[in-house]
Backbone:
C-alpha cells in the first residue's frame, strides 16, 4: 500500500513515514480540503491508523471515498474507531453496491485517477480520506495500513498478554502489542500472496476473515521474543495460525466492487487459488 498526502500546494508521498510503527512518523497539520490517499493493488474494506503522542482534540468526522471511473464515491457503513483521530484504531467500511471499484493507473492523460494526475502509479485501487474540520495541529501518524486484530482481540485468546509486567518484561515502557499485530498483518498478506490466494485485481482483503489468524501470529511473535521459556506456547500459536489460514472459504470479489456476494464465495479444500 502506498500513501500520499495532498494539501492546497502539492501532493507528496508519505509511505515511508507511515509504513512502520517503530520508525518515523508524519506530523500532519490537516486543513479542511486536504486529502490522504491510499493506493493498493487489491480492494480492501479496512485500514488501521496508529496515532502518536499528539492526537486530535477537535471534533471532526472522517469521510472515506473510493475511486470509480472518473469520480470519487463515498463509502457506506463506515465505522471509525479512531473517533476522528483522537486515538489509534481501525476504520472499517463498505463500498457502495451500485458503483464498482476502478482499477486505475496514471500512466497517461487518458488513463488518470482524478486528483492524482501528477504522480505515477499503475493498476491500483484508490481510497481517499478527509475530515469535515481542521484538525489539531501536529497530529502524528505513526502507521497507516493493514492490521487485522488489536489488543482486545489478542487478550480474548491470550489473557497473559494483558499484564503490565509481561509487557514491560518484553520492553521497558511498552504499553500495547500494536507493533506485533501490524507485523502479523504483513506476514499474513505475504503468505496469502505466496499461496496464490491473493492475486490482485478482483479480490477483497476482508479484515474479519483474518482476525483469528492475526491473533495467533501476533502471539507467536511475542512468545518468540522470550526464547526457550515459551517454546511450547510459541509452537502451539504457530500451529493454530496455520490452521486458521487454511480456511475452506475465501471471499472472492469478481465484479470489482469489493463486496463479495453469496454466489462469489468459493469453496476449496485448504488454499484457494483463482
Residues:
Amino acid at each position: 500500500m502506498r500513501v500520499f498526502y495532498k494539501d492546497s500546494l502539492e501532493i507528496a508521498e508519505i509511505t515511508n513515514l507511515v509504513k512502520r510503527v517503530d520508525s518515523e512518523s508524519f506530523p500532519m497539520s490537516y486543513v479542511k480540503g486536504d486529502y490522504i490517499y491510499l493506493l493498493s493493488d487489491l480492494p480492501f474494506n479496512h485500514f488501521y491508523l496508529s496515532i502518536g503522542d499528539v492526537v486530535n482534540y477537535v471534533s471532526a468526522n472522517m469521510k472515506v471515498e473510493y475511486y470509480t471511473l472518473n469520480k470519487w464515491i463515498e463509502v457506506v457503513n463506515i465505522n471509525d474507531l479512531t473517533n476522528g483521530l483522537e486515538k489509534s484504531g481501525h476504520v472499517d467500511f463498505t463500498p457502495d453496491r451500485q458503483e464498482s471499484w476502478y482499477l486505475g493507473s496514471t500512466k497517461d492523460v487518458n488513463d488518470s485517477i482524478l486528483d492524482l494526475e501528477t504522480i505515477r502509479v499503475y493498476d491500483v485501487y484508490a481510497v481517499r480520506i478527509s475530515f469535515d474540520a481542521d484538525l489539531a495541529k501536529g497530529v502524528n501518524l505513526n502507521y497507516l495500513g493493514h492490521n487485522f486484530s488489536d489488543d482486545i482481540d489478542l487478550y480474548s485468546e491470550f489473557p497473559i498478554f494483558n499484564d503490565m509486567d509481561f509487557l514491560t518484561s518484553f520492553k521497558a515502557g511498552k504499553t500495547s502489542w500494536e507493533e506485533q499485530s501490524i507485523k502479523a498483518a504483513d506476514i499474513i498478506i505475504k503468505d496469502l500472496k505466496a499461496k496464490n490466494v491473493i492475486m490482485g485485481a478482483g479480490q477483497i482483503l476482508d479484515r474479519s476473515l483474518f482476525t483469528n489468524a492475526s491473533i495467533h501470529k501476533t502471539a507467536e511473535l511475542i512468545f518468540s521474543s522470550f526464547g526457550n521459556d515459551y517454546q511450547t506456547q510459541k509452537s502451539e500459536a504457530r500451529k493454530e495460525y496455520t490452521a486458521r489460514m487454511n480456511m475452506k472459504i475465501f471471499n472472492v470479489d469478481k465484479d470489482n466492487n469489493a463486496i463479495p456476494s453469496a454466489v462469489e464465495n468459493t469453496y476449496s479444500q485448504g488454499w484457494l487459488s483463482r
Observations:
- The CA atoms of residues 53 and 267 lie 45 Å apart.
- The radius of gyration is 19 Å.
- Helices lie at 15-18, 151-157, 164-170, 178-194, 211-224, 231-245.
